């Protein structure tokens, strides 16, 4: 298997490390090597996965993003940067990495840590949007997807059931993250969701998308906004960038979600076969989130943030959430002839956790 295929079809974070070698002096020295003259003012910004800093230099202020070592390859990160640059070229409101000596990605001296810089831009989060803002957001995401479709990203992950359900569940089971008496129930439910997901993902188109598009990754300045945090950019269905922005199912949210999708469809095609993916995409997100915490749980920041992780109550809640999602999925058609996406041949989940 060649490297490109291995990158795009392997779950991230299996060999991720931590930031014990990243102290303030190292952060400032990393910027100084690029010719920036830092003033010594460093403010740590909120980020669980990476380390992000607001740093003052003599002529400008920047946001420095230090990637978690071992999570992404250099090629994968550069494809994130290419996507951002492509979006800027088409006047999509995002922040693109700053360029120094024709490069956007740099290495901390004598450390296995990549970093990049962005120009500091002020903005605030909004929990709720009015109709005009929702329409503007729908138009922007549609334009983002038009740009995303224009070029391939061969190293980024693909949002497939195999990677986001099978590989995650396998990791949780092999590393004994689930209490023993709940394993059978979790395995059975995950297996059912996996089979449904593979069936629903047949004939779904994949392209470059944001991957983690929700209100927490949209910063507003007056009536304008810009999208941030493309760290989880993947190859996947366009609907993945729409449903997380208004995920609730109360009557008001249903109306707003319809408004968002209608605005999107004024600019770009939203394939009808993607709509049915929403419940299973929710399940994939829930399972992936649990595995993400599990892979990071030796990091003290994760222990402090997720104190209930691994407990019986935590996993009972996870099972309940997945059961509710499963109940929302229409599974009347039980024909199970499933195919992988790359080889176009039958694929069966590993039997190490599949129920007999």
> Assembly type of the shown chains?
single chain
- Radius of gyration equals 21 Å
DSSP summary: helix tally: 11
- Per CATH, the class of the largest domain reads Mainly Alpha
Task: Report the portion of residues in β strands.
Answer: 5-15%
What overall form do the CA principal axes indicate?
globular
Lateral arrangement of strands in the main beta sheet: 1-2-3-5-4
CATH architecture of the largest domain: Orthogonal Bundle
By DSSP, the count of extended strands is 9
CATH homologous superfamily heading of the largest domain: Transferase(Phosphotransferase) domain 1
Largest sheet: 5 strands, antiparallel
Molecular structure report:
It is built from eleven helices and nine strands. 41% of the residues lie in helices and 12% in strands. A five-stranded antiparallel β-sheet has the order 1-2-3-5-4, covered by helices on one side. It has a two-stranded antiparallel sheet with strand order 6-9. It folds into two domains: 13-119, Phosphorylase Kinase, domain 1, CATH 3.30.200.20; 131-328, Transferase(Phosphotransferase) domain 1 (Transferase(Phosphotransferase), domain 1, Orthogonal Bundle), CATH 1.10.510. α5 runs antiparallel to α6 and α5 (161-174) packs parallel to α9. β2 (51-57) and β3 form a beta hairpin. It has 356 residues and is an alpha+beta fold.
């Amino acid at each position: 298997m060649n490297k490109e295929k291995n990158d795009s079809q392997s779950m991230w974070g299996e060999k991720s490390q931590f930031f014990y070698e990243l102290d303030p002096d190292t952060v400032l020295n990393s910027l100084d090597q690029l010719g920036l003259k830092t003033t010594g003012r460093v403010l740590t910004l909120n980020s669980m996965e990476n380390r992000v800093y607001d740093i003052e230099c003599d002529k400008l202020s920047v946001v420095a993003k230090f990637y978690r070592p071992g999570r992404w390859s250099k090629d994968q990160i550069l494809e994130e940067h290419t996507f951002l640059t492509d979006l800027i070229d088409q006047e999509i409101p995002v922040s693109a990495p700053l360029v120094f000596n024709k490069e956007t990605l740099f290495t901390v001296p004598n450390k296995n840590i990549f970093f990049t810089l962005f120009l500091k831009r002020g903005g605030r989060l909004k929990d709720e949007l009015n109709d005009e803002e929702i329409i503007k957001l729908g138009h922007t995401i549609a334009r983002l997807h038009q740009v995303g479709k224009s070029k391939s990203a061969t190293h980024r992950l693909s949002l497939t059931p195999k990677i986001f359900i099978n590989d995650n569940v396998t990791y949780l089971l092999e590393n004994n993250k689930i209490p023993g008496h709940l394993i059978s129930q979790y395995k059975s439910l995950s297996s059912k969701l996996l089979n449904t997901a593979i069936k629903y993902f047949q004939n779904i188109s994949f392209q470059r998308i944001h991957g983690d598009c929700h209100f927490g990754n949209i910063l507003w300045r007056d009536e304008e906004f810009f999208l941030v945090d493309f760290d989880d950019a993947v190859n996947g269905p366009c609907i993945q960038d729409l449903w997380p922005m208004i995920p609730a199912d109360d009557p008001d949210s249903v109306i707003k979600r319809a408004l968002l999708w209608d605005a999107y469809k004024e600019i770009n095609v939203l394939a009808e076969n993607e709509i049915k993916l929403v419940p299973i995409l929710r399940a994939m997100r829930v399972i992936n989130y649990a595995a993400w915490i599990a892979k990071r749980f030796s990091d003290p920041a994760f222990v402090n943030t997720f104190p209930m992780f691994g407990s019986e109550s935590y996993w009972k809640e996870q099972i309940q959430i997945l059961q509710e999602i499963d109940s929302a999925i229409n599974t009347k058609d039980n024909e199970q002839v499933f195919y992988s996406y790359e080889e176009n041949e039958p694929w069966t989940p590993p039997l190490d956790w599949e129920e007999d």
